[in-house]
Amino acid sequence: MSYISFYRKWRPQSFSEIIGQEHVVQTLRNSILKNRISHSYIFCGPRGTGKTSLARIFAKALNCINGPTSEPCNKCKNCTSISTGTNVDVIEIDAASNRGIDDIRGLREKVKYLPVVLRKKVYIIDEAHQITAAASNAFLKVLEEPPEHVVFIMATTEPHEVIPTIMSRCQRFDFEPLKLDKIKTRLADIASIEGINISESAISLIAKYADGSLRDADGILEQLSSFGDSKVTVDSVTSLLGIIDQEMLFEFANILVEKNINQGLLFIKRLIDSGLNLKIFVTEFLEHLYNLYVIKSYENPLDIVDINEDAKDKYFKQSALFGLDEIEMHLDIFSELLKQVKWGEGAKTFFKTAVIKAINSEIINNANINSRFKKIDTEIVLLKELLEKPSGIIDESKKVKSTGQPVTDSKKDIPQYAGKSKETIKKPEVIKENTANSKDSASLPPEKEVNPEEAEEFLRSNYDNLLMMVKKKNISIEAMFKEATDFKIKGSTICFYLSENKKFHKDHLNKVKSAAVIQESLREITGINMKVVFDFEPCENKKIKDNNRIEDKNDKIPAGDTKESGILNENIIEPEKDSTEEQKKPGEGAANKVNRDNDIYEYIENKFGKKQ
Fold first, then answer.
1. Alpha carbon 78 to chain centroid distance?
2. What's residue 388's pLDDT?
3. Which secondary-structure segment (H or E) carries 155?
């Protein structure tokens, strides 16, 4: 008798021999016992899980001479002919090569004929997802009104590619990948009967590599039976299949935990020179890291991961060298690497850089993280106090010791309103130039009560800065905000006035988001936290000019007065905008009026050559 491959020789021949698909077997058996046999079935699942084998067994159970029965006898001529594939009433169709509409039309013509020998004519259509869309639509007519003597059993690994109209006309059964222990038990039985001397660890490695497919596991065992005359070991499996030796995984993990860059570079060279598939190595190492993580974090890890007895002690010892944070970091690095080496291009370069990164990476422990967060929280609290207070000196005991200098708002060097101060206000251009020197400030202005009149006067003289600040934060809000005609400070509220035809502007600026931008800008300019509102009521005596400067309506040059005459109203004289010119500091008030007068006289002297 000619040689038969293991996967054919050991193919299940009865329901009781099916492994790992008990839910499907039970349903099919009961449907036969209760005479509830459907006209079409579809078996879905990965390769090597028993779809075609179970379809044949179901065909035998329907057509056994002693049946229909829940367990075929495998002795009658009907069962034996189906098992050998010689029965004319059980037709197996490969949809990958018979996928066209002409093939389906031929099938439609044949199904109407009664079976020759059996009770039921059974069509087993493998790789059903390969049928074209046109052929699938033609096949629908048969499924809608099938002859009573026909049963269709379709098998597919890609159920999502089968059109929904076909899927809805079939009873669907999902086949699961076989569990590791079931494959190991099956391989041990076959090896015992076939006389193959193989170690338990080698069987475990085969079962793991088969990835839930019993057919793949049978094929690997068959290859190993011819590999050598001696006992089949783990080394035999790794050599034949080209998979990664477990010792190499332990060695690489030790290099990472020791952060030995020299050994790491040598390992990279040895791995690349060996010609091993980098994708397989990275996949295996991720599995290795996962095992370490489970052992490190779970009370009964052997209930979750399958580890060979030979490697169990090594896993537990190595897991003690790693921290959970470190394992998680390596899982992230090599998971990202797996995506990069997936396509093959530049895989070696990606692998080299990932290994170097993994060796040189450091884990910051929780104590360091907490101390850093506490330091940041302290600085944030101090900055909030600085922004919320009108003015004042921060308590020396609250200074951040690590800085060595008082806390200043280095992000924005706009002068703050602090009651009365003799310091001058810098223009925006000068502020930008002096930003680098803002940290040299030795002290903050003294704490004063907020004077609405002085705050209003200061804001009018710094309205350009306010517009610039709002524009920097949100240019669309600034475009509407600059339409304000005037403002008034009442307690802790500042009211900006708009003309009656600016209803859209008022509604938009009164929204929380817009008001927050303006409120923040005001706080950065004046140091005062004020509520911002917009209204239509105009102010009686003040208005904002087109150039965004504020002046009294009645402060006009008297009729007949000219600049040539030298007679000017001091209230409207404004210095020419010069980048080096200093503006008055907020809070100057009435106490510093003499300084303002002197500035005006000096301006007249410089401009007109006349003394007052």
1. 57
2. 64
3. strand 150-156
At residue 552 the predicted structure's pLDDT band, cuts being 50, 70 and 90, is: very low
CB-facing half-sphere around the CA of 438: CA atoms within 13 A: 18
Residue with tokens 């002409």: 102
- Give the N- to C-terminal CA distance of the chain in Å, as an integer: 131
Give the DSSP letter of residue 16.
G
Helix, strand, or coil (residue 263): helix
Please classify residue 383 by burial: count the beta carbons closer than 10 Å to its beta carbon, then call 0-12 exposed, 13-18 middle and 19+ buried: middle
Burial class (CB in 10 A: 0-12, 13-18, 19+), 297: exposed
577 or 362, which is more confident: 362
pLDDT in tens, 460-480: 888 888 888 898 888 888 888
> What is the distance between the alpha carbons of residues 551 and 608, in angstroms, rounded to a whole number?
23
- Report the DSSP beta bridge partners of residue 496: 487, 534
| Per-residue pLDDT tens over the stretch 31-77 | 999 999 999 999 999 999 999 999 999 999 999 998 788 899 989 99
pLDDT at 173: 95
Do strands 493-497 and 486-490 pair parallel, antiparallel, or not at all (unpaired)? antiparallel
In this structure, what token pair is assigned to residue 426?
């810098």
Q: Are strands 486-490 and 171-174 parallel, antiparallel or unpaired?
A: unpaired
Taken in order of first residue, the domains within the chain and their CATH numbers are 6-174 (3.40.50.300), 180-241 (1.10.8.60), 246-360 (1.20.272.10), 452-606 (3.30.300.180)
Among 405, 393, 372, 510, smallest CA distance to 446 is for 393
pTM of the full predicted structure? 0.56
Q: What is the largest CA-CA distance in the chain?
A: 133
Helices and strands counted in the chain (H then E): 25, 10
pLDDT 10s digits, 6-15:
888 899 999 9
Question: In the 8-state DSSP scheme, what is residue 583?
Answer: B
Radius of gyration of the chain from its Cα atoms, rounded to whole angstroms = 43
Alpha-carbon torsion angle 580, 584, 586, 587, nearest 10: 160
Residue 493, helix vs strand vs coil: strand
* Span 599-604, average pLDDT: 60
